[in-house]
Q: What sequence folds into this?
C-alpha cells in the first residue's frame, strides 16, 4: 500500500598536477593501508550551500546524507522503511501516529538524539518541502511526548506520512539538533554542521571550489538486519575518510579516474563515456532508473516572464533533441524527447498537450507569438553554470534558442554555486536577480503532484521562480483527495494541460546519467551517490 501511494500518488596522460589544488590535501596516514581507507570522489559540482533545507541542489542533498540521518529511508522498491525510527503505531482511524526512535542514536558531539530535535527538524523541513507543507497543514499537533517518542495528531489520515519523512527528493527530512533545526528555514543555518549520520563534516579541511572532507563517525549505530538499499537499511561506513575533489574540467576528471588518482566520478560527460568504457579498470553504470528531467526555469516575478503568453510562446522554440544531444550525445538509448511534466513510463505521465513541444518548429511563428504576447525587447538575464557540464550544455543551447527567437539575452556565465545563490534572489534582474536558469530533477522528484516542486503554483512559497498558478494548486489538492489510481491519473492529465498553458517551466527532455568508478570499488548502491556500504576490494 505504501508503495502504491508513492508511485501512483504518487588525454589520459594527465597527472596529479593537472588537478591543481584539488589533490593538494594534507597526507592522511602513511602507506597503502592508509590510502585504502580513503575514498576520493569527484562530485557533480562544488558544494556552495551546506544547508539541505534552503536549497534543492543535489550536491547539497548528497552532502547532507553523509552527515544527517532520516527517520525513514527509501529502498530500491520506493518503499519507506524505518531508519532512525525503531517503528511506529497508527491509531484513531489513521489520525494518531506515534514514531519511536531507535536506541543508541547520538549526535556527532556525543549528545543523545531526542524526539524534540526531530520535531524541530520536521517543522523546519516541512516549511520548505512541497509534500511537507501538505503534511503540516493536515497536522493538528506535532510533539515529543518523551525523549524517544514523536506524536502526530492529524486532522485526517495522511497515507503519505512515512514516504514524506523518508523520500530522497529534495528537500529531504534530515534530522538535526534542535539548536540548528530551530533556525529560520529560509536562511542558511549557522553554526557547526552536527548530525547523527555515518560521517562527520571536517570543516577545517574544506576549500571552497576544491575540496570537501568527511570522516567516519565511530559512534554511529547502523540498523540491524536486512541489506543496504538506496537510503534504507544498515548504513555501514567502510571508509575512514571520504574526500570530494571538485574538478570542473571533464577531461581532467576522466584522466584522474583512469590513472587511479580518483576512485569515483559522479557524472562523467557523454563525450567521454566511450573512452571510460574502454578502460578495463573503470565501471560505468546508470544508477537512477528514473532518469533526469531537464528544465528551463522562469522567474515569474519580473518581465518578460511574468506574462503567461510570453512563456507559452517559447514552447514553440524548444527542440528537446537539441538539448539532450548537447548534454549526453547522439546515442538515442540515453535520452528521450516528447517529454511533458511527468516522467515517461510512470503512472502520472500522459501525452496531454505534448504537441506543444513535438510539433514542427517554426521560429518565425515564435517571434510573432512573442510580439503578440507583449514582449518588447526586455532583457532576459540567463544565469548559466559554467563549471557544471550538463547544465552548461543546457544553458548554451538555451541561449542560442532565445536569441534565435529574437529575445534580448544577457548571458551570465558563472559557477554553479553562484547560480544556486543568485536564483534565490527575488530582486529584479538588473538588481542582482535573474530571468531564467537551467537545471534537472531526478524522475523520482517528479513522479507525481505530491513531490513535484517545480510544478507548484503557490506564489511566494513556491520553488525558485515563484509562479502563482491557482488552478494547479486546486488540482493538486484534488489529486490528494482522489480515491484511486484512475482518479489520480485523470487529475494529473488536467494538471499537465494547465501546465502547458501557464508554463511554470520549459520541459527540455529526459536523459540517463551514468556514474563511473574504479573496478576495485565495490558496494556502490543504486540511486543517489551514497557512501556507506562502499568499500575497496
A:
Amino acid at each position: 500500500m505504501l508503495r502504491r501511494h508513492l508511485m501512483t500518488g504518487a588525454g589520459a596522460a594527465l597527472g596529479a598536477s593537472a588537478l591543481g589544488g584539488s589533490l593538494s590535501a594534507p597526507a592522511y596516514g602513511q602507506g597503502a593501508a592508509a590510502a585504502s581507507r580513503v575514498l576520493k570522489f569527484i562530485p557533480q559540482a562544488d558544494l556552495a550551500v551546506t544547508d539541505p533545507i534552503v536549497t534543492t541542489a543535489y550536491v547539497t542533498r548528497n552532502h547532507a546524507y553523509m552527515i544527517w540521518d532520516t527517520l525513514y529511508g527509501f529502498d530500491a522498491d520506493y518503499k519507506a522503511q524505518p531508519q532512525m525510527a525503531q517503528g511506529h503505531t497508527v491509531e484513531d482511524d489513521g489520525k494518531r501516529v506515534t514514531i519511536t526512535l531507535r536506541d543508541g542514536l547520538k549526535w556527532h558531539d556525543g549528545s543523545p538524539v531526542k524526539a524534540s530535535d526531530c520535531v524541530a527538524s520536521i517543522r523546519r523541513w516541512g516549511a520548505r518541502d512541497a509534500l511537507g507543507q501538505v503534511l503540516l497543514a493536515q497536522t493538528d499537533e506535532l510533539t515529543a511526548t518523551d525523549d524517544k517518542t514523536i506524536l502526530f495528531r492529524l486532522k485526517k489520515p495522511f497515507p503519505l506520512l512515512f514516504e514524506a519523512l523518508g523520500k530522497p527528493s529534495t528537500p529531504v527530512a534530515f534530522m538535526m539538533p534542535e539548536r540548528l533545526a530551530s533556525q529560520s528555514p529560509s536562511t542558511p543555518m549557522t553554526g557547526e554542521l552536527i548530525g547523527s549520520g555515518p560521517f562527520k563534516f571536517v570543516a577545517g579541511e574544506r576549500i571552497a571550489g576544491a575540496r570537501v572532507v568527511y570522516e567516519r563517525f565511530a559512534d554511529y549505530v547502523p540498523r540491524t538486519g536486512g541489506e543496504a538499499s538506496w537510503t534504507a537499511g544498515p548504513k555501514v561506513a567502510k571508509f575512514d575518510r571520504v574526500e570530494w575533489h571538485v574538478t570542473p574540467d571533464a577531461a581532467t576528471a576522466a584522466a584522474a579516474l583512469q590513472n587511479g588518482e580518483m576512485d569515483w566520478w559522479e557524472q562523467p560527460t557523454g563525450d567521454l563515456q566511450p573512452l571510460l568504457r574502454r578502460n578495463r579498470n573503470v565501471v560505468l553504470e546508470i544508477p537512477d532508473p528514473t532518469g533526469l528531467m531537464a528544465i528551463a526555469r522562469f522567474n515569474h516575478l519580473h518581465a518578460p516572464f511574468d506574462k503567461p503568453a510570453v512563456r507559452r510562446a517559447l514552447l514553440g522554440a524548444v527542440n528537446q533533441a537539441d538539448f539532450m544531444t548537447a548534454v549526453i550525445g547522439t546515442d538515442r538509448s540515453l535520452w528521450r524527447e516528447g517529454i511533458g511534466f511527468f516522467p515517461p513510463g510512470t503512472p502520472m505521465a500522459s501525452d496531454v498537450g505534448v504537441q506543444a513541444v513535438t510539433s514542427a518548429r517554426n521560429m518565425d511563428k515564435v517571434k510573432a507569438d512573442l510580439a503578440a504576447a507583449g514582449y518588447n525587447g526586455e532583457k532576459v538575464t540567463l544565469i548559466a553554470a559554467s563549471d557544471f557540464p550538463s547544465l552548461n550544455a543546457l544553458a548554451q543551447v538555451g541561449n542560442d534558442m532565445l536569441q534565435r527567437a529574437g529575445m534580448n539575452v544577457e548571458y551570465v556565465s558563472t559557477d554553479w554555486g553562484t547560480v544556486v545563490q543568485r536564483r534565490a534572489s527575488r530582486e529584479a534582474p538588473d538588481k542582482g536577480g535573474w530571468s531564467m536558469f537551467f537545471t534537472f530533477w531526478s524522475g523520482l522528484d517528479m513522479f507525481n503532484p505530491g513531490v513535484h516542486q517545480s510544478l507548484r503554483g503557490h506564489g511566494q512559497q513556491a520553488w525558485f521562480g515563484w509562479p502563482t498558478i491557482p488552478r494547479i494548486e486546486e488540482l493538486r489538492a484534488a489529486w490528494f483527495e482522489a480515491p484511486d489510481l484512475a482518479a489520480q491519473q485523470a487529475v494529473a492529465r488536467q494538471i499537465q494541460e494547465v501546465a502547458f498553458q501557464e508554463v511554470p517551466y520549459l520541459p527540455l527532455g529526459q536523459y540517463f546519467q551514468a556514474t563511473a568508478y574504479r573496478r576495485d570499488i565495490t558496494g556502490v548502491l543504486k540511486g543517489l551517490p551514497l557512501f556507506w556500504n562502499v568499500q575497496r576490494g
